[in-house]
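Sample entry copied in:
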Amino acid sequence: MSLADAVAGVVLLALAVLVLVVLRARWRRRESYRRRGRFGRLIVLAASFVAVFVAATWLPVLVLRFVPPLTSSFMLQRMVPCRGVAYDWVSWDELSPHTPIAFVAAEDQRFPQHHGFDFEAIKKALDEAERGRRRRGASTISQQVAKNLFLWPGRSWLRKGLEAWWTVLLEVTWPKRRILEVYVNVAQLGPCTFGAGAAARQFFGQDAADLGPWESALLAAVLPNPERLRADAPSGYVRGRQSWIQRQVRSLGGAGYVEAGN
């Protein structure tokens, strides 16, 4: 058993104990609760809500630490317009080593170093916004996994707050390799295509394990807007991003850059 597995087990046990303690306390204090003042009842209700919220949001994260996602929030939202989506889970050992590093080079080059939030990228994005330039994205891969698995598209403060919370849970519960493994599998790579496994077969007629640097960079090139940018019929812009991603992969040192952070 690895250290990450041991930590996840301890966290799961502690979470279960917390829920049991809260339920037992509520049961024993039911009579006294009726005699409390309004402020006391609000405190009990708030504590109960927090305990239930933590348990309800952390439990799926704990489960998905070990179990491949059957689907994601983004996939479910595309089910009706797409009349089904293409998605096939591919484990880390069955992925081409070129694919994870291509996604990191394209979306989050500081992924091995940060703990869920890239404050340097956030600062740059804010500075550019103040200068009136086009706002650049500052979401990390961890944030994108949280959003894709559990949330919905949009820029509301509610969604951003929930995204931040789930990002913390992911970083605390999962090792970096698991976060990247899930990202490569659930990222949208076409209007109705999710993950490198389905994209490899649909766009290139091969398994995810056989993707080379060229194909991996092409898939990563459509990540900013997979409903408009296409890997099966790449535009000049996509080709330009593909070449840039390949240069970035070489600059980072190749697949070893990702392995070093796990």
Notes: The first helix runs from residue 3 to 28.
